[in-house]
Design the sequence.
């Protein structure tokens, strides 16, 4: 078990966003988290990364508790996140943003190489590499956010709606990339509105509703589940 | 004035003095609240507008012996005029840069008053008649609160809040940012001018040193500590902070130390101000809000 | 043939060395739904910013109902009848949902400071009218039950709808929607589509940027495609879907 | 005479720049106008006096002691008065800062008395002549020390990783943390450096003008802050430029007969510069992208 | 306008007369800009009260000093004045040491018929506020012409530089007087420069006057700036010495100026010079030194002391603590020997203090250089 989330409760003031979520991620898996707006998907990811303190519950990563650990240490353990809404550093250039992604890494030469790889994946970013990230288009920012997270060479990558705002071709591209880095050894927890695509590349999935897990299991099975089809796949 | 004799039956002159001062500060603070709290334009130079109002009205009183209401209004309009003159070029500055420009303006006004002969320079202006009474101040405070309260729920008031929240979106909704901001500035500085005029005719002596940036910060503190944009908040903040130094007299020389520490502590425990987010309108129509505003988390269905 | 409500006449804008929009011509018919699609960074949002006068074009002319609007102030544009939503949501977070929409009525009403303070019968009537209009917009977007909540506390999808409601409250003739369906699940997208149709049926013209092809194809009457700031295609959804240039640049092979 | 005034102005400006750097760094990272910064400068000056007069130390040790003390103090102030307010409205820490500033002023008045204290002699008043210009040893020291400190700072921020971490943290704490940046540490570091520079400024100014007083931080702080804005707040070279600019302008203004309006000149210039360059001389223009 | 002059406080003052202590209020700053003056004034007042009480009090009652701090703020100054009068029911107020706050406080005292005796306000327009308002200071209007004449005739100064602190009402007023006196004595001001209180850097001003080669520098500001100014002057190689008012009179001048103020001259109505002092003054100096680690009193402490003594003597003469009565006696004060000099209140209640002491700094100490009689 790489990541084990047990009975997680999170509140924003009076709003109870998570009401006892449990989920497991095994090494090498792609796990999808789907659910309607406000179901608590982003909250789950933010809690794992240490940005939000849960009211109760336990998160263990490789047997080590993440509760109470500050976010930068969690990153050092190899957990990286592409946050919702891109959150690029708007006053830094594209290049600098990518370098920030590699903040914890010491291997400077390798970092340079990896930036090159990112540019190969997203040629658009290379064209814009000295532009301030704040003036990028929405989709370009999304690419940058993804590239930045990849720069940290995570063991576990948390993706919060990575396809949002991307052109159709790029959506395909993004999912291909997710599969590819997964095959290269990165475990992935994926939050997506595009449930169709998400389920198609995942091993397993959890369905969230108002802060609770209502369904879970094999991704393929869920994709064929009539309830899921109706509610999340729009069929 | 009959009301005043009634007041002095119940209150001694010291309390009356302190209450008048509180009222004067309230008017000024509500003015700043409109600028900084409601419209979100940082101003570090509020005291300068007080001083413009104070000097204008005092000079008119001393030289021309005009009736008090007239000089008060003149002080208010003079302050508003300068508010607009300063506002027009500087309001396109954003956030903190505007703050600095107003801070600079405040210091310039102070230095100018220090060097003009009509203001008595560093010697100050003395012998101003004492016209300010508790009754008058109470009436003006009530009027100001009333006006601000009505503004809160009006087309113009909403436009100001929209500017504070997101200028680009406000503009896209058809709000003319520049005129709205300037109008807010004019009204806020007008109130500062009135407040200054009352002050001049209470203290009976004016000195530019009394209107330095520290006084501007005092006003900002009233507003922020009370709760930016909240009328009850500003009233509470101003009251607490005006009375605190008086109540803290028993700690003698440690008074200002305690005052400073209290500012920090209050901010830490109430980061949005004592009554941050509390709106008078909402307070008054509380029941309605409670009925409808409950289901927050159950949004997904 | 109906009138063109919006006309772009070889509109160009450059940021430094970058030509974000490159001599684009476009005519939008009154009452239609027009989509603007293209790869990321093609210049779609920039066109919206040009039409709402947040940017001034480097060259070219933009006409709204036959009148040149280059270089006007955004608030004037709104008053003329163009409203928009933002790709990155820009709500007035600390205001209630209802107040957000009421701000939309700003350009259709008059009360200033003095009016607000004195609150005569005319002002009261106007305020009542504002509330009515705002509630109508909220109802259309199915948000009236949330009217007293702070905008920042709404879930993402509802925030998007609130943006549309707020834009509708300005009583526009032309409504620009920048990725209105982003971050919504398929079901919500369906609802949104119905809403947009309803709006169009009310007589508004809709100009739409969106990456969800299902959404675009089933909603729009005509589609314009942009790549690297240049118009590469225009036509009906069926035509666009078949256009090899569009497939190469944007759609990819197995979409839709 | 003009060159002499220029030199006086540059010396003054160098000290403004030292203080301005702290303002700019803190502003750059937490967008807080740290109004308590002037008081840190004041405390630094007093520590300098204490080291020299009570512990009989030389300039270098006194300077280092003051810098070390204020470093700790700056970090502590951030911990107590600003950190709890990090996620609240922008103005909350500002008020907290004013509170801290009032507190430190009165505390120091209580300890040292309200009067100015003379700065004991550590450096003789010898003059060096360079053509028509006279430069005193103290001026020389000020120029050298402040240049060294600023160069050091520039190096740290430009070439060491923490500089970039500061910029990232300044935009978005959460996302910076997601990059593995220890945001608290970066902010503490910023306060430490800024406060140390202010302390150095305090000691140097105390020595130069031979006096140290509990209220000395108010005006100096304000002017340094203006210098920071003038240069473009958040920009380190901007703070240096702004400081020098202000120092020279002020000195020349006084020499040119505008002494009555000295402070007004400084602020008028500030407003004029802001009108033409709304983000200061070296500030990056704000990009509007929707 | 005669409005607002309510007299409801008369009864409260009668009540004050009934207790077994006589309350005298201290109006001044213990914190903020002017704290130094306030603190010293208060020290003197307390010493006077002690001395009086040890000697049996006034009319069988003890003197009690009621203290309050206004933090050097005008607004709070008026609040404190009002509080002293209405809450503490003082019969007299000593203060404020500065002209500005005195001008704001005096109308309140006047309206409430409480005596206000400033032990430091030297600016114009103070006693004119009303017949309850007094001060026990050496007036610059008296001293400045006397001193100007002195430097001209005895020291042969012809060309002077005049330095004013522009944000200091005292300095601005004094400079006016000096400007007039210089003209009347046929001298010339060759350079005029302004500074500001709490400035530390005077290099520009010194550079500007240096070339004009004045015989002497008239400096009308306070001691901190005075010391620093001279320091800069010497640093830039100027030889001229400085003369100024009692605003320069403090040990701080030497602390700030060191050797640079050697030879500087200061006039005042009080000299803490034990060698020349009379018995009364000597006793005061000793007592002050004993209570303050050997530092010498400055004029504020001396004037504060005298203020309380003056009030006490007036009350004794009137056999009453009712301000309406003892202020009449106070106004009659003639050739009254205090620790800060001989005081006579003229018909307009302005004090005449004689002689004017001219002190000079020698070996880091103030020494009386000469005295000038004034009429
Ligand atoms: N900062 C916040 N303050 C208050 N409530 C919040 C905050 N962030 C989220 N919430 C609320 O918590 C609940 C869960 O939100 P969360 O963002 O985790 O949902 P989500 O599943 O990611 O939705 P979406 O698909 O819209 O991204 C929602 O009701 C939301 O309104
Ligand atoms: N202010 C600006 N300065 C520099 N470049 C800019 C600016 N605004 C936009 N750009 C660039 O112009 C191009 C077009 O941007 P625009 O936001 O219009 O794209 P878009 O078509 O909306 O893309 P998306 O679908 O990703 O939102 C992008 O490459 C962007 O980087
Ligand atoms: Mg989410
Ligand atoms: Mg876009």
Sequence:
């Amino acid at each position: 078990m790489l990541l084990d989330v047990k009975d997680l409760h999170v509140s924003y003031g009076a709003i109870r966003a998570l009401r006892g979520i449990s989920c497991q991620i095994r090494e090498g898996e792609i796990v999808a988290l789907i659910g309607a707006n406000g179901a608590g998907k982003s909250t789950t990811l933010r809690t794992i990364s240490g940005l939000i303190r849960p009211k109760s519950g336990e998160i263990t990563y490789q047997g080590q508790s993440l509760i109470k650990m500050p976010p930068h240490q969690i990153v050092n353990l190899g957990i990286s996140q592409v946050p919702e809404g891109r959150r690029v550093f708007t006053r830094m250039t594209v290049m600098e943003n990518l370098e920030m992604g590699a903040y914890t890494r010491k291997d400077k030469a390798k970092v340079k190489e990896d930036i090159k790889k990112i540019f190969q994946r997203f040629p658009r970013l290379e064209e814009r590499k000295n532009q301030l990230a704040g003036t990028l288009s929405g989709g370009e920012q999304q690419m940058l956010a993804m590239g930045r997270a990849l720069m940290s060479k995570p063991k576990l990558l948390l993706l919060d709606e990575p396809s949002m705002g991307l052109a159709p071709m790029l959506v395909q591209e993004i999912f291909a990339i997710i599969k590819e880095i997964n095959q290269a050894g990165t475990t992935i927890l994926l939050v997506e509105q595009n449930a169709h695509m998400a389920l198609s590349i995942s091993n397993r999935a959890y369905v969230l509703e108002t802060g609770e897990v209502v369904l879970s299991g094999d991704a393929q099975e869920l994709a064929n589940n009539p309830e899921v089809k109706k509610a999340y796949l729009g069929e | 004035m009959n009301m005043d004799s009634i007041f002095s039956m119940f209150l001694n002159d010291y309390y009356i003095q302190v209450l008048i001062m509180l009222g004067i500060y309230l008017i000024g603070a509500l003015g700043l609240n409109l600028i900084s709290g409601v419209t979100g334009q940082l101003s570090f130079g509020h005291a300068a507008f007080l001083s413009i109002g104070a000097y204008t009205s005092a000079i008119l009183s001393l030289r021309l012996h005009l009736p008090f209401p007239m000089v008060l209004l003149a002080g208010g309009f003079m302050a508003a005029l300068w508010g607009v003159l300063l506002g027009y070029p500087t309001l396109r500055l954003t956030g903190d840069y505007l703050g600095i420009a107003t801070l600079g303006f405040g210091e310039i006004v102070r230095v100018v008053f220090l060097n003009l002969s009509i203001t008595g320079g560093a010697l100050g202006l003395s012998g101003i008649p004492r016209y300010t009474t508790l009754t008058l101040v109470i009436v003006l405070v009530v009027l100001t609160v009333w006006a601000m309260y009505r503004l809160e729920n009006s087309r113009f008031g909403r436009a100001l809040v929209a500017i504070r929240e997101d200028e680009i979106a406000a503009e896209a909704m058809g709000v003319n940012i520049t005129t709205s901001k300037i109008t807010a500035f004019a009204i806020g500085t007008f109130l500062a001018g009135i407040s200054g005029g009352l002050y001049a005719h209470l203290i009976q002596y004016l000195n530019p040193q009394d209107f330095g940036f520290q006084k501007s910060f005092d006003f900002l503190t009233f507003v922020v500590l009370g709760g930016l944009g909240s009328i009850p908040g500003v009233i509470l903040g101003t009251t607490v902070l005006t009375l605190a130094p008086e109540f803290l007299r028993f700690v003698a020389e440690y008074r200002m130390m305690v005052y400073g520490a209290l500012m920090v502590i209050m901010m830490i425990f109430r980061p949005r101000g004592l009554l941050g987010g509390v709106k008078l309108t909402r307070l008054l129509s509380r029941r309605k809000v409670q009925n409808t505003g409950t289901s927050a988390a159950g949004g997904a269905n | 043939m109906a009138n063109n409500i919006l006309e772009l006449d070889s509109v160009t804008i450059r940021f430094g060395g970058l030509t974000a929009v490159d001599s684009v011509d476009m005519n939008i018919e009154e009452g239609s739904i027009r989509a603007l699609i293209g790869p990321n960074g093609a210049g779609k949002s920039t066109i919206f910013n040009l039409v709402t006068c947040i940017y001034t074009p480097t060259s070219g002319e933009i006409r709204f109902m036959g009148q040149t609007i280059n270089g006007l102030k955004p608030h004037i544009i709104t008053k003329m009848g163009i409203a928009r939503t933002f790709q990155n949501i820009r709500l007035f977070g600390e205001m209630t949902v209802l107040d957000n929409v009421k701000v939309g009525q700003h350009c259709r009403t008059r009360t200033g400071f003095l009016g607000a303070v004195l609150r005569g019968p005319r002002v009261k009537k106007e305020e009542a009218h504002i509330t009515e209009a705002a509630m109508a917009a909220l109802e259309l977007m199915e948000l009236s039950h949330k009217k007293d909540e702070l905008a920042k506390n709404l879930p993402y999808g509802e925030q998007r709808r609130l943006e549309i409601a707020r834009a509708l409250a300005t009583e526009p003739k032309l409504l620009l929607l920048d990725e209105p369906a982003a971050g919504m699940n398929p079901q919500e997208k369906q609802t949104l589509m119905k809403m947009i149709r309803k709006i169009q049926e009310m007589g508004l013209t809709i100009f739409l940027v969106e990456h969800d092809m299902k959404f675009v194809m089933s909603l729009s009457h005509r589609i314009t495609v942009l790549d690297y700031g240049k118009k590469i295609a225009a036509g009906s959804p069926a035509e666009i879907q078949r256009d090899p240039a569009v497939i190469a640049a944007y759609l990819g092979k197995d979409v839709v | 005479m003009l060159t002499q005034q220029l030199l006086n102005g540059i010396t003054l400006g160098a000290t403004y720049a030292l203080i301005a750097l702290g303002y700019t760094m803190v502003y750059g990272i937490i967008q807080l106008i740290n109004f308590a910064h002037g008081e840190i400068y004041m405390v630094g000056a007093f520590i300098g006096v204490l080291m020299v007069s009570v512990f009989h130390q030389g300039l270098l040790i006194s300077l280092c002691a003051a810098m070390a003390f204020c470093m700790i103090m700056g970090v502590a102030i951030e911990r107590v008065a600003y950190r709890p307010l990090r996620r609240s409205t922008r103005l909350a820490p500002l008020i907290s800062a004013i509170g801290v500033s009032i507190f430190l002023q009165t505390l120091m008045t209580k300890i040292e008395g309200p009067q100015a204290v003379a700065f004991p002699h550590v450096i003789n008043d010898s003059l060096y002549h360079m053509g028509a210009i006279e430069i005193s040893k103290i001026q020389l020291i000020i120029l050298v020390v402040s240049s060294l400190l600023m160069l050091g700072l520039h190096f740290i921020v430009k070439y060491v990783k923490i500089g970039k971490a500061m910029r990232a943290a300044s935009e978005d704490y959460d996302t910076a943390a997601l990059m593995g940046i220890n945001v608290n540490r970066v902010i503490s570091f910023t306060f430490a450096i800024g406060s140390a520079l202010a302390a150095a400024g305090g000691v140097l100014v105390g020595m130069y003008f031979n006096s140290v007083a509990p209220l000395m931080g108010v005006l100096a702080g304000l002017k340094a802050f203006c210098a920071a804005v003038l240069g473009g707040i958040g920009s380190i070279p901007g703070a240096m430029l702004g400081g020098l600019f202000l120092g020279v302008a002020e000195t020349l203004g006084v020499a040119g007969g505008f002494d009555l309006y000295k402070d007004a000149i400084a602020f008028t210039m500030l407003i004029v510069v802001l009108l033409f360059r709304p983000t200061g001389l070296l500030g990056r223009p704000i990009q509007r992208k929707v | 306008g005669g409005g607002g002059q309510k007299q409801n406080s008369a009864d409260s003052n009668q009540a004050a007369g009934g207790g077994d202590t006589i309350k005298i209020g201290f109006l001044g700053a213990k914190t903020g800009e002017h704290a130094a003056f306030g603190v010293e004034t208060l020290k003197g007042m307390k010493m006077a009260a002690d001395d009086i009480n040890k000697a049996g009090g006034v009319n069988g009652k003890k003197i009690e000093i009621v203290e309050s701090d206004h933090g050097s703020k005008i607004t709070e100054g008026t609040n404190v004045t009002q509080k002293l009068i209405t809450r503490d029911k003082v019969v007299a107020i000593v203060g404020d040491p500065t002209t500005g706050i005195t001008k704001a406080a005096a109308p309140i005292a006047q309206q409430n018929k409480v005596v206000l005796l400033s032990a430091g306000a030297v600016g114009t327009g103070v006693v004119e506020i009303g017949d309850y308002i007094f001060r026990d200071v050496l007036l610059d209007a008296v001293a400045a012409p006397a001193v100007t004449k002195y430097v001209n005739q005895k020291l042969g100064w012809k060309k002077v530089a005049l330095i004013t602190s522009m944000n200091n009402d005292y300095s601005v007023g004094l400079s006016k007087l000096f400007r007039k006196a210089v003209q009347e004595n046929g001298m010339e001001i060759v350079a005029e420069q302004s500074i500001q209180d709490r400035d530390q850097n005077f290099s520009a001003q010194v550079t500007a006057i240096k070339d004009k080669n004045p015989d002497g520098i008239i400096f009308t500001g306070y001691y901190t700036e005075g010391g620093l100014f001279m320091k800069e002057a010497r640093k830039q190689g100027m030889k001229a010495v400085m003369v100024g008012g009692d605003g320069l009179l403090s040990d701080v001048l030497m602390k700030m100026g060191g050797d640079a103020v050697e030879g500087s001259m200061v006039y005042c109505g009080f000299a803490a010079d034990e060698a020349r002092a009379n018995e009364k003054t000597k006793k005061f100096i000793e007592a002050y030194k004993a209570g303050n680690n050997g530092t010498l009193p400055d004029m504020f402490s001396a004037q504060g002391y005298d203020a309380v003594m003056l009030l006490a003597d007036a009350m004794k003469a009137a056999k009453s603590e009712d301000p309406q009565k003892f202020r009449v006696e106070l106004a009659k004060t003639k050739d009254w020997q205090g620790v800060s000099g001989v005081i006579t209140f003229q018909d307009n209640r302005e004090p005449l203090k004689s002689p004017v002491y001219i002190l000079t700094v020698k070996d880091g100490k103030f020494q009386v250089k000469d005295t000038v009689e004034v009429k």
